[in-house]
Design brief:
The complex is a heterotrimer. In chain A, 27% of the residues lie in helices and 23% in strands. Chain A is an alpha+beta fold. Chain A has a seven-stranded mixed β-sheet, sandwiched between helices. A six-stranded mixed β-sheet of chain A has the order 7-15-14-13-8-27, with helices on both faces. In chain A, strands 16-24-25-26 form a four-stranded mixed β-sheet. In chain A, β13 and β14 form a beta hairpin. In chain A, α11 packs parallel to α18 (724-736), α15 (515-543) packs across α16 (569-578) and α17 crosses α18 (724-736). The radius of gyration of chain A is 27 Å and the shape is globular. Chain B is α+β, with helices and mostly antiparallel strands. Among the domains of chain B are: 1-51, Uridine Diphospho-n-acetylenolpyruvylglucosamine Reductase, domain 2 (2-Layer Sandwich), CATH 3.30.43.10; 174-282, 2-Layer Sandwich (Enolase-like, domain 1), CATH 3.30.390.50. The termini of chain B are far apart. By secondary structure, chain C is an alpha+beta fold. Chain C has a five-stranded mixed β-sheet with strand order 2-1-5-3-4, with helices on both faces. The chains are: A alpha+beta, B alpha+beta, C alpha+beta.
């Protein structure tokens, strides 16, 4: 292989470093208007007055729309519970109430200011335990009328999804256990904080909508918009531009539909871009959660049974929470052998902004809880924390709690060994107020379908037509570009990948769950097989040789064993075109679902972990006893990736994921006030990790090629964020000598823990 | 929407003329790092932005007996040139935002912004800072302690311009430090800020002590009671602990989005102990920190 | 209010209200969209430009304060499509992911290398505290600077 496995420069690098890459916020159309959205200032209340007549009369204002102008039905990913504009009542701060389009930002703002809005505020439902209880007011009193998008699932009142696995033998095992270890773990919300705020440019011409987006999943924009507007999907064209970061937040529908409605109402194109505070307030953040764990253990530290109860804060709409409610079951045992485990997970409506997908969905707080819990088990039994993990590690053929067999789970032990080689456990965390922590997990590669068209252009370059999105990870600009180049023995510079366009590209399920390189790369492999046959067919005429005697070498078609007898791909392409034939082929792929036990749980909407990967993280920290500040001294990752397509790209994903995990663990605090409003509302108080806060992460990549993956590649980008808070919290707890079970671990929490440790 | 006038002046006299004409309708603008944020948030409503960045006279940074910081001396200039003579102020300036902010943001601007968390004020207070003001009617000088009156409130009259801040550099044998408490290592508004300057004699007895703090009250302030306890001591544990108690007693912090009052109070005492240790090592010239 | 300054060597004249930011003039009036708007409060550094060679957050810099000054934006760093050594290194090391912060980093780091052609790692980290990258974890950005420094020796 000449391209796969090399540190090949990313294709979009030059336009990005020179400032010429066009993001949606940079994109304009002639005659474009400025859009603005009026949003609810309160978390819960009844709209007693909404009058937009004054706003409509302001010069330069072309459209003002409200719920009265929107289709009345609701839509959503799992439950149709989201209106386009608040109807009668508001259910969270930042909920859209009206939108305007005007010739200038000033006129748009004047129109917003002229809208007469009165809301009678009500006490918001904020506390998760309370929201889940029978005493809580309903966030959506008419929840029972909301349809599920697919087959319905257990839900009731504020609990918009409940997943329950209740196998036999749990209570019996607790009865005979020598010890029961309990813990309650809490994690706050995390804002994706991509640097390009959400934006869209929309137009409506000839009965069709066209939206320009920087979105991770253009086909979802198409389908969700179609459902929200009640039109057929092909009535909407979604064109993708460069994406200034997404991390999951740009997977679901957002303001795209509002811009489209404004464009239709105004009869002119409309650009709608979030201001930073608006973006933070309305982003589908990583959900806050409470995880309660009880484990029945024997004297050797074997977990005889476990009981796990999880509350996920869905916010005021379910979005993907009904799917996320399955993840606790898939992680509750994780890399370790445990006895029968009861898992109940409830996604709960609150009067807060809807939460949603963020890289490593739910895994960050679940692994935090589970791995903190393991440390607590080890401490209570006075067993070394690493040894306890190794003693209970899964082996090849062990199953997850859904019954899915992990054929290659012994990779976990290899990962622990690799970490030990560079960071010997017994030597770390020594000295006053220093600590070391570990965490491990099994994660998945998203299986959803993708398709591509490969075509040989007349200049001999290879066109890849795809709706796969380059969210920054390199999956398109490195991963699938290099895979396509390798398939046709071309240099990567000869591969031209299209930008996403739902009119011209075949379906792709977007950049989520580390799927792009794995799925689209595999689709490219299938297409390339067909394409090579087409190439050999045409070339056989040019070279006067049988197709089966031909081969591709360095981008030329030659006759096997006859050096010099070859033609360039450009010549073949031109010959094909002249003959009225095409060198173009499609390829598609979706991971077949692994076998699992469908009776293992109810409400299991996301039942399996396809293409599993294995991860071990280690953190060493020091704690400042005066201020409670934590410094991450060292961070080590052993990650199994199948096959490295681009080492710089893979390492960058791991380092970037760890940095987001460090932010989640130590700095990024999104508190919800009793009024249901976020307390941190800008990047000044919502602190992102800086260059001086993140260490040089040591990365070790394990390669166990997946026969189903392109050149063996599995998913890479999502899991590096998952075990970070767990490893760091374990290290801090070790340093201070007291458990820290709440995220983020702020300096004040560390000082409090030190006080607790000193009292003991 | 009324239109905002942007007026650039290149001489102090021009600035004073504008100020006497416009009074509090004018907002003085230097680097703009505070003013432009507040203007865009709608917290300021001036009729005129009076841009003084091009006034050469205000760029002066003079070091004779005292150090004179012209009103346009930036954080970066201080942190790059005064690390020896005003270590605490240099340390504070190096923590005000990032390079981009320090490059154009000025010490005088940080003082005039009068934030409870102003990083430069505690180190200026322990350096006996005096604020020079000019107006059409003449000039006057006010000790910094009497200049900052409250949150976003100073003694500057609407027709006055701060022309310079004069400070006493570190005397021989003295040491000082600025400690800033915040979760991240940069780009932070201080949860607590503490500046300490100590002069020690040959026997390492404290002959002069100055302690000032920010983010624990509406205004950064000197803590004279704590200072008095340290004078005459050899920074013995008891003396420092007593000073820490007085420091805590003098503080009146609030709960806000950045930290709780309880956290701020908890940190203050140990922070003074840390500062005393560092300054003790720096003072006397033997183990000069740089 | 009229305003004249040079941007990337060209003299430009625009007419914008007092109080307009330099960022709005660059991205709006001049359509130089390489300079990004991330937060409009001086936290993220995506809008960093050089004002007379000094790195400044253009979101907090009054446009009229630029009167008569020389502004360099990301569009002025590469000449004739030829990337600077630093830009090339950022592409090669993986120091670019989503790329939205990249123009700001290029500007700040260009200023750093101008001032100090051989920075050590800690100096590089300190220089970029006013630039947030949400993707990379910073290491490969710093690697790029170090490769540039090595290449320049």
């Amino acid at each position: 292989m000449t391209t796969v496995g090399t540190r090949s420069a990313r294709g979009d690098g030059p336009v990005k470093v020179s400032g010429s890459a066009m993001y949606t916020v940079d994109f304009s159309l002639p005659g474009m208007l400025v859009g603005l959205v009026l949003r609810s200032p309160v978390a819960r209340g009844r709209i007693s007055r909404l009058d937009v007549e004054q706003a409509r009369r302001i010069p330069g204002v072309w459209a003002v729309i409200t719920a009265a102008d929107a289709p009345g039905h609701r839509s959503g990913l799992a439950i149709k519970d989201q209106p386009l504009f608040a109807v009668g009542a508001v259910t969270h701060e930042g909920e859209a109430i009206a939108a305007v389009a005007a010739e200038s930002a000033e006129a748009a703002q004047a129109a917003i200011d002229a809208i007469e809005l009165e809301i009678e505020p009500e006490d918001p439902v904020v506390d998760l335990d309370f929201a889940a209880s029978d005493d809580a007011p309903l966030v959506h009193p008419d929840w029972a009328n909301f349809e599920a998008v697919g087959e319905d699932f257990p839900r009731r009142g504020n609990v918009c999804a409940e997943m329950l696995a209740d196998p036999a033998g749990v209570d019996e095992a607790f009865g005979r256990a020598s010890r029961v270890v309990e813990g309650e773990y809490r994690a706050g919300r995390q804002y994706q904080a991509y640097l390009e705020p959400r934006g869209v440019v929309a137009e409506y011409r000839g009965g069709r909508y066209t939206v320009h987006v920087s979105h991770q999943f253009p086909f979802n924009v198409r389908d969700r918009m179609a459902a929200a507007l009640g039109v057929r999907p092909s009535g909407i064209r979604v064109i993708g531009h460069h994406i200034g970061g997404g991390f999951g937040a740009k997977l679901d529908l957002g303001i795209e539909v509002h811009a489209a409605m404004l464009a239709r109402a105004a009869g002119r194109p409309v650009k709608l871009v979030n201001e930073r505070t608006e973006d933070l307030l309305t982003c589908q953040c990583r959900e806050d959660a409470i995880v309660r764990l009880r484990s029945a253990v024997d004297a050797e530290g074997r977990v005889l049974a476990r009981d796990m109860d999880v509350l996920l804060d869905a916010g005021a709409a379910a979005t993907d929470a009904p799917f996320l409610a399955s993840i606790p079951l898939l992680l509750a045992a994780g890399p370790y052998r445990v006895g029968p485990t009861r898992v109940r997970a409830r996604a709960v409506y609150t009067n807060t902004a809807p939460t949603g997908a963020f890289r490593g969905v739910s895994g960050t707080h679940l692994i935090f809880a589970l791995e903190r819990h393991i440390d607590e088990i080890a401490r209570s039994l006075d067993i070394d924390r690493r040894e306890l993990r190794l003693n209970n590690l899964k082996e090849d053929g062990d199953a997850l709690l859904n019954g899915q067999v992990l054929e290659d789970a012994s990779i976990l032990r290899e990962a622990f060994d690799r970490v030990e080689e560079v960071a010997p456990w017994q030597t770390l965390g020594k000295g006053e107020l220093r600590g070391v922590g570990m965490a491990a997990c099994v994660w998945l590669t998203n299986p959803m379908p993708g398709s591509v068209v490969l075509k040989v252009n007349e200049d001999g370059t290879l066109g890849v037509v795809t709706a796969a999105t380059e969210n920054g990870s390199g999956a398109v600009s490195m991963g699938i570009s290099q895979i396509a180049a390798e398939e046709l023995t071309l240099p990567v510079e000869a591969v031209v990948v299209s930008m996403p366009d739902t009119d011209s590209a075949p379906y792709d399920a977007g950049s989520q769950g580390s799927r792009t390189t794995h799925i689209v790369g595999r689709a490219i492999g299938s297409a390339a097989e067909v394409l090579r046959e087409q190439i050999y067919e045409i070339a056989s005429g040019l070279l006067e040789a049988a197709p089966e005697d031909l081969e591709l070498v360095d981008g030329r078609v030659g006759v096997k064993g006859s050096p010099g007898a070859d033609v360039s791909l450009a010549e073949v392409a031109r010959a094909a075109t002249a003959a009225g034939k095409s060198l173009a082929a499609t390829g598609s792929y979706a991971t077949p679902p692994p076998r699992f036990d469908p009776t293992c749980a109810t409400g299991l909407l996301f039942p399996v972990f396809p293409t599993p990967t294995y991860h071990v993280h280690l953190a060493e920290v020091s704690v400042d006893p005066v201020t409670g500040r934590v410094t991450v001294l060292r961070y080590v990752v052993a990650q199994e990736v199948g096959k490295v397509i681009n080492p710089a790209g893979v390492v960058g994903q791991v380092q970037g994921g760890v940095a987001q995990g460090i932010g989640y663990a130590l700095y990024e605090n999104l508190e919800i006030g009793r009024d249901g409003r976020y307390r941190q509302r800008t990047l000044e108080t919502y602190r992102l990790p800086l260059a001086v806060d993140v260490p040089n992460v040591e990365v070790m990549l394990l390669e166990h090629p997946d026969p189903a993956g392109p050149f063996g590649a599995k998913g890479v980008a999502e899991p590096p964020v998952v075990p970070v808070a767990a490893a760091i919290a374990n290290a801090i707890s070790d340093a201070v000598g007291a458990p820290i079970n709440t995220l983020p671990v702020l300096p004040g929490n560390v000082l409090d823990a030190l006080d607790r440790a000193n009292k003991v | 929407m009324r239109t905002l006038e942007f007026r650039t002046v290149t001489k102090v006299d021009e600035a004073l003329e504008s100020l006497s004409q416009l009074g509090d309708e004018a907002q003085v603008l230097a680097g703009g790092t505070d003013v432009m944020i507040q203007y865009q948030r709608g917290e300021l409503h001036p009729a005129t932005l009076l841009h003084i960045e091009g006034v050469e006279e205000l760029q002066r940074l003079e070091q004779d007996g005292s150090v004179t910081l012209g009103a346009l001396v930036t954080h970066r200039r201080v942190s790059r040139t005064l690390a020896d003579r005003l270590p605490a102020l240099s340390e504070a300036c190096a923590t005000v935002g990032g390079w981009q902010t320090q490059e154009v943001g000025t010490v005088a601007g940080n003082v005039c912004n009068a934030s409870p968390a102003a990083d430069t004020i505690p180190p200026l207070l322990i350096a006996g800072a005096v604020v020079d003001l000019a107006s059409g009617g003449g000039t006057r000088s006010i000790p910094l302690e009497q200049f900052v009156l409250g949150r976003r409130k100073t003694a500057r009259a609407p027709d006055e311009l701060v022309t310079a801040i004069r400070v006493e550099p570190l005397p021989p044998g003295a040491g000082e430090v600025y400690l800033k408490v915040a979760p991240r290592s940069a780009m932070e508004v201080a949860l607590v800020g503490l500046a300490v300057r100590l002069q020690l004699d040959q026997d390492r007895v404290v002959t002069d002590a100055r302690i000032a703090t920010c983010s624990v009250a509406p205004v950064p302030f000197r803590v004279r009671g704590a200072e008095e306890v340290l004078v005459g001591s050899r920074l013995e544990t008891d003396a420092v602990a007593e000073a820490a108690d007085l420091l805590r007693a003098a503080a009146d912090p609030i709960d806000d989005v950045r930290a709780t009052a309880a956290y701020r109070l908890k940190v203050l005492g140990p922070l003074l102990e840390r500062a005393a240790t560092i300054v003790g090592e720096r003072a006397g010239g033997a183990t000069r920190w740089s | 209010m009229e305003l004249t300054f040079t941007v990337n060597g060209r003299t430009v004249n625009v007419d914008v209200p007092g109080g307009t930011t330099l960022l709005d003039v660059l991205r709006g009036s001049l359509q130089l969209t390489g300079t990004k708007e991330g937060c409009v409060e001086g936290e993220c550094g995506a809008c960093t430009v050089l004002v007379d060679g000094r790195p400044v957050d253009s979101c907090l810099y009054a446009a009229h304060a630029a009167e008569g000054r020389a502004i360099t934006t990301i569009e002025g760093i590469s000449t004739d499509g030829e990337l600077s050594a630093l830009q090339r290194a950022l592409v090669d090391t993986g120091g670019v992911q989503c790329g939205f912060c990249t123009p700001g980093f290029v500007i700040t780091l260009t200023a750093l290398l101008e001032e100090n052609p051989t920075p050590i790692e800690d100096e590089v980290r300190a220089a970029i505290v006013g630039n947030i990258c949400r993707c990379t974890g910073y290491t490969q950005i710093i690697d790029a600077v170090m490769e540039t420094v090595e290449g320049g020796r």
